[in-house]
Specification:
By secondary structure, this protein is α/β, with parallel strands linked by helices. It folds into two domains: about 210 residues, P-loop containing nucleotide triphosphate hydrolases (Rossmann fold), CATH 3.40.50.300; about 40 residues. About 45% of the residues lie in helices and about 15% in strands. A seven-stranded parallel sheet has the order 3-2-4-1-5-6-7, with helices on both faces. α4 links the parallel β5 and β6. α7 packs across α10. It is globular.
Length: about 280
């Protein structure tokens, strides 16, 4: 794929679906990889929360919080989009969502978004909200590309059963389910990613880093662990090294099995190729 400084918005009108997690763990690493490994500008539009602060040690992005209630919001959006940099817009829920969508439309910046990411959990309201946001944004810009992220998947193989509010009733029992895919244009029906729930997501925040960055360190803690036993280090040091080894191995598996798979599918969606 040709290197491009993508402008991406992560949007959901429902709180607690993992917008900041998806922004920092998926979108920012993707943009970093696909935009020449240059630092990504991450803007959090939320007057109540500052979730991106949990990634204080991350060097993949420069993080900034934007005042949604500012009377100059449209002008600020124009300035943000005018930057010759990859952008990730992490947009808060509830009233903030519609305020930002309207400001994006009024400023004309909605036409310069490369794609929109809509995170979804497996609840019914998540599906309803996702369909609503999709239809609103399509109404403002029918050419927008969408990627639905099915978040906190328990099992990649059986995701269709967990996310019946996205795919429809997999068991053929509840015929009245209004699946998200039923409300999508044909070209968007396959534009979904599966993001596995895993302890590494929680622990990476404790380190203030993304999973991608932990994996990139490629540290071999087994050697250090062996040296600790040889040198009769304290129990606490051995436990810490053992934990770090677990984190390193978990990050490596997560990047290869989840993130790189997601990156490849995003490439496919953006290039307009047929899905596998």
């Amino acid at each position: 794929m040709i290197e491009k400084k993508f402008k991406v918005a992560v949007i959901s009108s429902k709180g607690g679906v993992g917008k900041s997690t998806i922004s920092m763990q998926l979108v920012v690493p993707f943009l970093f990889e696909r935009c020449g490994k240059n630092v990504v500008k991450h803007y959090e539009f939320d007057d109540e929360n500052n979730d991106s602060s949990s990634f204080g040690a991350s060097v993949l992005s420069i993080r900034e919080q934007v005042n949604v209630s500012s009377p100059l919001l449209r002008e600020e959006l124009a300035e943000i989009f005018a930057q010759d940099e990859a952008l990730c817009l992490d947009i808060g829920a509830n009233k903030t969502t519609m305020t930002l969508i309207e400001a994006l439309s009024d400023s004309g910046m909605i036409n310069f978004l490369d794609f929109v990411v809509i995170p979804i959990l497996d609840g019914e309201q998540d599906g309803i909200n996702a369909s609503f946001i999709y239809s609103v944004l399509k109404g403002y810009n029918e050419n927008l590309k969408f990627i639905f992220v099915l978040n906190r998947v328990k099992n990649l193989e059986y995701a269709h059963y967990q996310f019946e509010n996205y795919f429809g009733d997999s068991r053929g029992i509840f015929k009245n389910i209004n699946a998200v895919v039923d409300n999508l244009f044909e070209e968007d029906k396959d534009n979904y990613l599966l993001i596995l729930d895993d302890e590494i997501i929680k622990y990476s925040r404790r380190f203030g880093l993304t999973i991608y960055e932990i994996e990139q360190q490629k540290k071999d803690f087994i050697i250090a662990l062996g040296n600790s036993f040889t040198n009769l280090s304290t129990k606490e040091e051995i436990k810490l090294l053992s934990f770090k080894n677990y984190i390193s191995k978990s990050a490596n598996s997560y990047v290869n099995d989840v993130l790189l798979v997601a990156f490849k599918k995003i490439d496919t969606i953006l290039e307009g190729k047929s899905h596998e």
